[in-house]
Structures are given as C-alpha cells and as structure tokens.
Amino acid sequence: MVISMEEIVASAILFCWVIFVVVFLTKNLYEIMLRRRLKYNVAVYYNRKVIHMLTGGLVAMLVPFIFKTPLIPLILALLLGVFTYIPHKTGKLMYWFQTEENMYEVSFCIMWGVILTFGWLISEGNFWFGVLPVLFMSFGDAITGIVRNMLYKKRTKSWWGNLIMALFSIPVGTVLGLAGIFAGAAASFIEHFEFNPIDDNVTVPLSSFLILVLAKFYTPWMLTF
User: Fold this and answer.
1) What does the pLDDT look like over 146-188, one tens digit per residue?
2) What are the residue ranges spanned by the domains of the chain?
3) Integer Cα distance of 111 and 200 in angstroms
4) Minimal CA–CA distance to 7: which of 83, 80, 73?
C-alpha cells in the first residue's frame, strides 16, 4: 500500500511533538521539580512517566486514525530507540529522564513499534490489536509508577500502584472485548514483578499481546473488532 502525503505530514508533526516533549518540556519540568525541592530520582521518575503518556500513549491512540499501515510508526519508533540509546553509549545522558542504571526508555521505544506492527499483521489490519498492549505500557504503567512515586518517593513496586493500573487497563481493554479485559488484568498483574534484565516495558505489552494472540486463534469469540 502506498504511503500517503497525509501520513508523511502527520508523522513529521508527531515526531516533532515527541522530540519537544523529550528534549524541552520534560527538561523544564525537571528544573521546576528541583526548584520545588523534589529529589533528583523522584523528578527523573516523574519525567519518565510524563514521556510515557504524552509520547507513547498519545501517539498510539492517534495511530489508528492516521495510518493505513504500521510502516512509518515502526521506523520512527526504532529511530527514537536509537536516539535514546546514543546518550547511554556516549555517556552524555539526557539527565532529566535518563539514568545510568538502566535503558528502559530504549526498550519502550522498540516494544512500542514492534507490538504495534505485529498486532496489525496478526489481526490483518486492525491497529487496536497492537495499540491496546501499547496503551497498557504507556498509560497503565505510567499511572502505577506515578502512584508509587507519590507514596514512596522512589522506584519500587507496590500493589496499590497495580490496583490503580487495573482500574485503567481493564475498562480500556473492553475495546477488544473479553480478551482485552483479560489482557488488561494480566498487564496490571505482571507489572508488579521484575525479571531482570527484562523490564516491564517488555513484559507488560508482551504478556497482554500474547493473550490477545491466543484469543484470536483459540477463542475468537472473546474478541471484539
């Protein structure tokens, strides 16, 4: 299928938005949070979640209404993966959201593009099949992270955060029916656990995506398209 001019223009606008959020908006938020005497690690963690929602989440929601194929979103996601990896390689971190301890933002970009693409392919053209797991990762994981940061002022796991994530992910999952509800519940549960070196930007979208795939091939009546 030929890529339309509308897709190209929209891609340029969305890419600029992502760069704006990552490079300018969150950097200024970081300075504001430090001036309000938030700890460095707290400010960084909040910024990660802001990026999750305003880039990964917002753009994913727009994808089904703008694009005919996942080709451009995949290419841009991989480019952003490289963009966030280079600072780790060179030692010049974007300190307002990146840390030396991990490269979770890189896996976020890669999984965003990969899940979106495979979802479209497996569902034979339904973007929501891949968008839904990406929303669990972008908004669901961000919500639970913000709750934990508010409660504990550090990066940690808490069932309270997972409960709040479930209150978001399960209703959102209804867009794909009963399978989507189960996928949202599973994502909210699996987020609580760490499987180093694999982070929850991999386990959350992958686990929920596999549930949707299994439903498509073995219990299609659980899916609503």
Assistant:
1) 888 787 776 677 788 899 999 999 999 999 999 999 999 999 9
2) 5-222
3) 11
4) 73
